[in-house]
Amino acid sequence: MGETPERDSPHAYHDEQERAEVGQILKELALDHPARVAYHFGLGPLALTHFTKDDELVSRLKLAFKNGQVRVLQRARGEADAMLDRRGAASFALPGGRRRTDPKLPRL
């Protein structure tokens, strides 16, 4: 579990901070709780919500997942921008004749 995930692995879509948050949440449960066992076998935070009826725990797992996905998407966006910059495509034309490098454009 402590290994770095392969890029094509489903675990590549979760970040280390999310794993740490989920681990902290699950520490509140008994060692033999089905959610802890499922997490050990690789289930993600949303799947774990089906193993508990505690609404507060479910909310915290969902929040950990959501925050993790935001970080993954932000990281992917940064990688895409860097790739465009390396290829010299950072100044491609946008509707209205504006350029991507125009400082008036909001960062997506």
Broad structural category: mainly alpha
Helix content: 40-55%
The portion of residues forming beta strands comes to: under 5%
- Taken together, the total number of domains comes to 1
Individual helix count: 4
- What is the CA-based Rg, rounded? 19 Å
Give the overall form: elongated
Give your account of this protein's structure.
It is a single chain. The chain has helices at residues 16-26, 34-40, 45-48, 55-86. It is mainly α and 108 residues long. Mean pLDDT is 77; it is low at 1-7. The longest helix has 32 residues, at 55-86. Helix 1 runs antiparallel to helix 4 (55-86). It has one domain (10-97).
Topology of this structure?
Layout: H1 16-26, H2 34-40, H3 45-48, H4 55-86
Quick take:
The protein has 108 residues and is mostly helical.
Task: Describe the structure using short key phrases.
single chain, 108 residues, 4 helices, disordered N terminus
